[in-house]
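Section 5.1 Outputs to date
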Amino acid sequence: MTEKLKLVSESEAKLRKIHQQLWDIVNEHLGPEDPNAVMMLSGAMLKVCLELYTVVLQDSDIENLLDVTKDDLPRIRANLAGMIGDRVVH
């Protein structure tokens, strides 16, 4: 394996670990049928994301990122449904 591929692989492994740790935190605070908690935790996590983006991106770059991200919503929903099954939040 080349050095560049090794670094990419290590970065992906680190990202997967962080992703799992975030889900562990989410699962500590959410019940399966608590839509208010889902909304509050989602809002808090989104706020942290936006705060982090402001450290490294200009406002226009963040706006572009959000525009691109909205196109991924169907794929994200499908992936999540595959992970946890279909849930309806009312």
